[in-house]
TrEMBL record:
SUPFAM superfamilies: RmlC-like cupins (SSF51182). InterPro entries: ChrR-like_cupin_dom (IPR025979), RmlC-like_jellyroll (IPR014710), RmlC_Cupin_sf (IPR011051). This is ChrR-like cupin domain-containing protein. Residues 248-271 are annotated as: Disordered. It comes from Sphingobium boeckii. Pfam families: Cupin_7. Residues 8-102, 143-227 form the ChrR-like cupin domain.
Length: 271
C-alpha cells in the first residue's frame, strides 16, 4: 500500500482520539503497510512517559504550542527534532502540556535508520530565512525558507516556508505543478487559494509523486511546514490554468474517510 492522496483537510474537522497514555491524537495520514504516518499529538499537563527504548520508526517532531521535554531538554515553540529508527528519545514529559506535529517514517525506510541518519535538534527561531530567488513561475509568492533537515541520499527535505501577502501575479492564469516525489504540508498561519479551495491555518495535504496541483496564489500571505521526498523540490510545469481565487472547497479525500473531513471550515471572525 501507499500513503493516500489528501488535498486538503482542515485539521479542525478531525476528531481527537484518546490514547492509553493520556495523549490525544489526530492522525492525518497513515500507511498500514510500513507504519509511515503524520499526526498531531496533544500531551496533557503533567504528562510523563518513561524511556521506551529504541524507536521502531524514525520520528520528526515540531512543537506547535506548549513546552515538552525530549531527550532531557525542554523543547518550546516551533522547536524541531529528528530521532532515527533504532535510537531512543528518552523520557518525554510536559509540565504545562504541549501539542506536536509528528512525522513517522516507514519501518523499512533505509535512509532514516541510525547510522545512516543522525539525531538532530533545531531552534528555528535562531535560523535565518533563506530569501534567495525561487522558480520564476512562483516568483509572485515571494517565498522564504528555513531548512530543518535534509535526508541522506536525496531522500527528504523538511522546511518552513513563508510567502508574503499580495502574492498574486499580474496575469489571470499560470501553470500548475507536478513533482516526481511526495509533498506534504501543514498550514501554520495565513491562507492560500488552490483549485481545491482556500487553505487556512490547520489545513493539511499529502501528495504522492505525479499529482498535478496548483496554481497557487495568496492574497494574505502564509507560513507553513512542509516535507518533500527529495533534498531539492523538482518541478514540471503544465500549460497555464486560471487563477483559483474564489474556488469552492472541493477536497480530494480517500474513500472511507469520515464525512466530517469534507466539511468546509469557517474559523472565528478576525474583527
Amino acid at each position: 500500500m501507499a500513503r493516500p492522496y489528501i488535498e486538503f483537510v482542515q485539521c479542525q474537522n478531525i476528531d481527537w482520539q484518546v490514547q492509553a497514555d493520556g495523549t490525544r491524537v489526530k492522525r492525518l495520514n497513515f500507511d498500514p503497510a510500513d507504519g509511515a504516518e503524520t499526526c498531531i499529538v496533544r500531551y496533557p499537563a503533567g504528562f510523563i512517559r518513561e524511556d521506551m527504548g529504541p524507536e521502531d520508526r524514525a520520528e520528526e517532531y515540531f512543537v506547535l504550542d506548549g513546552t515538552i521535554v525530549i531527550d532531557e531538554k525542554a523543547r518550546a515553540y516551533h522547536a524541531y527534532g529528528f530521532i532515527p529508527r533504532g535510537e531512543s528519545a528518552g523520557i518525554r514529559a510536559s509540565e504545562q502540556g504541549a501539542t506536536l506535529l509528528i512525522f513517522r517514517y516507514g519501518r523499512d525506510d533505509p535512509n532514516s535508520i541510525s547510522g545512516v541518519s543522525e539525531a538532530i535538534t533545531v531552534d528555528p527561531l535562531s535560523v535565518p530565512w533563506d530569501m534567495s530567488a525561487s522558480d520564476p513561475q512562483i516568483a509572485h509568492l515571494r517565498l522564504a525558507r528555513k531548512v530543518m533537515r535534509l535526508g541522506p541520499n536525496d531522500s527528504s527535505r523538511t522546511f518552513l516556508l513563508l510567502g508574503l501577502p499580495h502574492g498574486v501575479p499580474p496575469a489571470d492564469a499560470m501553470p500548475a505543478e507536478t513533482h516526481d516525489h511526495f509533498e506534504e504540508m501543514l498550514m501554520l498561519q495565513g491562507e492560500m487559494w488552490t483549485p481545491e479551495g482556500l487553505i487556512r491555518p490547520g489545513a493539511y495535504f499529502y501528495r504522492p509523486p505525479g499529482i498535478v496541483h496548483g496554481p497557487h496564489v495568496s492574497q494574505a500571505g502564509f507560513f507553513q511546514i512542509m516535507r518533500a521526498g527529495a533534498n531539492k523540490v523538482r518541478t514540471e510545469w503544465s500549460a497555464p490554468k486560471p487563477l483559483p481565487i474564489g474556488a469552492p472547497y472541493a477536497p480530494a479525500i480517500p474513500e472511507g474517510t469520515p464525512e466530517s473531513w469534507t466539511r468546509p471550515w469557517d474559523g472565528p471572525e478576525a474583527f
